[in-house]
């Protein structure tokens, strides 16, 4: 019972630390003579893996309740909140 929770923390938290370190060292906005495509590829692969794992967790959670509508509602709220945060950051400064 403890191992799946530790695995979730490791995948999501550890993956965040790794791709955050990669993008701090090699930001996307900066111009490079030779682009660090391998580092960016690893970072994007980690992000895709995290999103798949989060999808896997939520799909199991809502499959047991047979409430697909609630699942899509939660996903829509999360995506809307992320879009609002991005817009707030862009126009706030």
Salient structural properties:
93 residues, 0% strand
Main sheet makeup: none
Helix run count:
3
Q: How many DSSP E strands?
A: 0
Radius of gyration over C-alpha positions, nearest whole angstrom: 17 Å
Strand content: under 5%
| Share of helical residues | over 70%
SSE topology string:
HHH
What are the low-pLDDT stretches, counting only 5+ consecutive residues below 50?
none
Counting helices, strands and paired strands, the structural category is: mainly alpha
Average residue-wise pLDDT: 79
N→C terminal distance: 44 Å
Q: Name the shape in a single word.
A: globular
Structure explained in plain terms:
It is a single chain. The chain is mainly alpha-helical and 93 residues long. The chain contains three helices and no strands. Helix 1 runs antiparallel to helix 2. The radius of gyration is 17 Å and the shape is globular.
Structure described in brief:
The protein is mainly alpha-helical and about 90 residues long. Helices cover about 85% and strands about 0% of the residues.
Task: Please specify the SSE layout and strand pairing.
Blueprint: H1 2-25, H2 37-65, H3 68-92
Helix pairs in contact: 1-2
């Amino acid at each position: 019972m403890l191992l799946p929770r530790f695995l979730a923390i490791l995948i999501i938290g550890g993956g965040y630390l790794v791709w955050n370190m990669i993008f701090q060292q090699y930001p996307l906005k900066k111009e490079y003579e030779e682009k660090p495509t391998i580092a960016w590829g690893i970072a994007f692969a980690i992000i895709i893996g995290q999103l798949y794992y989060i999808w896997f967790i939520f799909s199991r959670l809502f499959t047991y309740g047979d409430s697909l509508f609630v699942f899509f509602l939660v996903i829509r709220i999360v995506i809307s909140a992320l879009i609002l945060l991005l817009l707030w950051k862009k126009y706030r400064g």
